[in-house]
Amino acid sequence: MTTAAIEKNNAAIQQPQQTQVSSVTPPVDVYENENDLVFIADMPGVPKGGLDVQIENMELTMVGKVNDAFEYRRSFKLPNTIDVDKVNASLKSGVLNITFKKAEAAKPKKIKVKLAK
């Protein structure tokens, strides 16, 4: 092996290998009822410590890292009708469940109608 080839080989060994992360968009079911807005995301293989859920500027971002080379990533713009301070999130068997409570102003109101005489 020539000196130039040895130097090139040593330089390649000293350069850290950068791992490219593959991001996959997970399937997410979104539904609402009278009181809640619910997101259910399938993220198989994500440990609890590999999960990052954030809300910034009314945008929900979910990131689930399976390992250094693979992650799930999805974002949603949230409506102003939810209360971002009243949220519950859980992860069970690779299924992420996020439930937002609707703001009181957004909930339907019943109007009592009196019978006119």
Proportion in β-strands: over 45%
Tally of alpha and pi helices = 1
Task: Assign the CATH topology.
Answer: Immunoglobulin-like
Structural Rg: 24 Å
Query: Helix proportion of residues, in percent?
Result: 10-25%
Sheet having the most strands: 4 strands, mixed
Q: Which architecture name does CATH use?
A: Sandwich
How far is the N terminus from the C terminus?
A: 107 Å
Give the class from helix and strand content and strand pairing.
mainly beta
Name of the level-1 CATH class: Mainly Beta
- In round numbers, the mean pLDDT is 85
**Order of helix and strand elements from N to C terminus:** HEEEEEEEE
What are the segments in which pLDDT stays under 50 over at least 5 consecutive residues? none
- Strand order, main sheet: write it out: 1-6-5-4
Number of domains: 1
Description:
The protein has 117 residues and is mainly beta. The protein has one domain (20-102): Immunoglobulin-like, CATH 2.60.40.790. The chain is built from one helix and eight strands. It has one helix at 3-14, and strands at residues 22-24, 28-32, 36-42, 51-56, 59-67, 70-77, 82-92, 95-102. A four-stranded mixed sheet has the order 1-6-5-4, with no helix packed on it. Strands 2-3-8-7 form a four-stranded antiparallel sheet, with no helix packed on it.
